[in-house]
Amino acid sequence: MIFTEEHEALRKTVRDFVEKEINPHCDDWEAAGGFPIHDIFRKLGDLGLLGIQKPEEYGGMGLDYSYNLVAAEELGRAHCGGVPLAVGVQTDMCTPALARFGSDELKQEFLAPAIKGEKVGCIGVSEVGAGSDVAGLTTTATKDGDDYVINGAKMWITNSPQADFMCLLANTNDDKPHKNKSLIMVPMDTPGISFSKHLDKLGMRSSETAQVFLDDVRVPQRYRIGAEGTGFMMQMMQFQEERLWGAANIIKALEYCIESTIEYCRERKTFGQPLIHNQSIHFRMAELQTEVEALRALTYQACELHIQGKDVTRMASMAKLKAGRLGREVTDSCLQYWGGMGYMWDNPVARAYRDVRLVSIGGGADEIMLGIICKMMDTLPGKRD
């Protein structure tokens, strides 16, 4: 992938924002279990960073996905995973289908203010009994006159406690599991919506997450995105950008772990010499950085194909799989070289160790990615019967 001056200007904008508006506050936000999402999103919206690849007529920049990838990568410089995750939910999880298939009315009501940072969104797919198995969700939206009446519950919903709207996936008819679902925009102040207490997560502590309960929640049928029964297909499309975003976002985070570990090993002395003088350590750092570069190449290639309009389901699944597994490998290896300091809760590598574990779970578990890749290998040229 070839980056232009425009790409680099955007990269600098995001990097400066992270350094000025996010990193000085990460420790406090992690301790508090949340951050001022509306304030941060309005600042991001003022810079155009919530609508990089969204249509210009709704306030977006109208750029191709490579620019969004650059922003995702630079957000990975944040010294916590929760804030970038919240941003990614807004840009690449709860608004792509709306931008592609939503009516002009829906885009004016939900997409335009989301791009400006005036409204915060969340994505309502996962349930207690249906995480990676999207087809198995049980939330229903039943027609009643011109409305849908929604009943069910959504689990692990990032941004939900402060969100203004949810892009909800629900069963809208009795057809087969892949044909009976629709995506529906749901204002979060609608009567019948309630929340659990904030979920006590292993990592991503600065992002607010809760279970959302929907009891006879009534919304107009015009809040449905596209045709009824096409929600599963739209959600699968949203997943591809979510997975690309997640793979790109972890790159700088892993490089930060490697760089900070090298610096610590230069300063920390054992047996009269710096730790970094141990060949096993500096060889390991070289191996890990090589793996990060391989992830970057895979992610960039998938992005390039996506821009060309190609089906990147296989490549995005590979990038997501590689990102999750490499995240565990890098953070575990780096934490080891910090010794006892690495076992402290506030250690930056320990935080990354907790945060990146989600990559192998959220947006489709590793096992789901492997299943997708296996199925698509059957279509490769040269496959023997």
UniProtKB/TrEMBL annotation:
<protein>
    <submittedName>
        <fullName>Acyl-CoA dehydrogenase</fullName>
    </submittedName>
</protein>
<dbReference type="InterPro" id="IPR013786">
    <property type="entry name" value="AcylCoA_DH/ox_N"/>
</dbReference>
<keyword id="KW-0274">FAD</keyword>
<dbReference type="InterPro" id="IPR037069">
    <property type="entry name" value="AcylCoA_DH/ox_N_sf"/>
</dbReference>
<dbReference type="Pfam" id="PF02771">
    <property type="entry name" value="Acyl-CoA_dh_N"/>
</dbReference>
<feature type="domain" description="Acyl-CoA oxidase/dehydrogenase middle">
    <location>
        <begin position="122"/>
        <end position="217"/>
    </location>
</feature>
<dbReference type="Pfam" id="PF02770">
    <property type="entry name" value="Acyl-CoA_dh_M"/>
</dbReference>
<dbReference type="GO" id="GO:0003995">
    <property type="term" value="F:acyl-CoA dehydrogenase activity"/>
</dbReference>
<dbReference type="InterPro" id="IPR036250">
    <property type="entry name" value="AcylCo_DH-like_C"/>
</dbReference>
<dbReference type="GO" id="GO:0033539">
    <property type="term" value="P:fatty acid beta-oxidation using acyl-CoA dehydrogenase"/>
</dbReference>
<dbReference type="InterPro" id="IPR009075">
    <property type="entry name" value="AcylCo_DH/oxidase_C"/>
</dbReference>
<dbReference type="GO" id="GO:0005737">
    <property type="term" value="C:cytoplasm"/>
</dbReference>
<keyword id="KW-0560">Oxidoreductase</keyword>
<feature type="domain" description="Acyl-CoA dehydrogenase/oxidase C-terminal">
    <location>
        <begin position="229"/>
        <end position="375"/>
    </location>
</feature>
<dbReference type="GO" id="GO:0050660">
    <property type="term" value="F:flavin adenine dinucleotide binding"/>
</dbReference>
<dbReference type="InterPro" id="IPR006091">
    <property type="entry name" value="Acyl-CoA_Oxase/DH_mid-dom"/>
</dbReference>
<keyword id="KW-0285">Flavoprotein</keyword>
<dbReference type="InterPro" id="IPR009100">
    <property type="entry name" value="AcylCoA_DH/oxidase_NM_dom_sf"/>
</dbReference>
<comment type="similarity">
    <text>Belongs to the acyl-CoA dehydrogenase family.</text>
</comment>
<dbReference type="Pfam" id="PF00441">
    <property type="entry name" value="Acyl-CoA_dh_1"/>
</dbReference>
<dbReference type="InterPro" id="IPR006089">
    <property type="entry name" value="Acyl-CoA_DH_CS"/>
</dbReference>
<dbReference type="InterPro" id="IPR050741">
    <property type="entry name" value="Acyl-CoA_dehydrogenase"/>
</dbReference>
<feature type="domain" description="Acyl-CoA dehydrogenase/oxidase N-terminal">
    <location>
        <begin position="4"/>
        <end position="118"/>
    </location>
</feature>
<dbReference type="InterPro" id="IPR046373">
    <property type="entry name" value="Acyl-CoA_Oxase/DH_mid-dom_sf"/>
</dbReference>
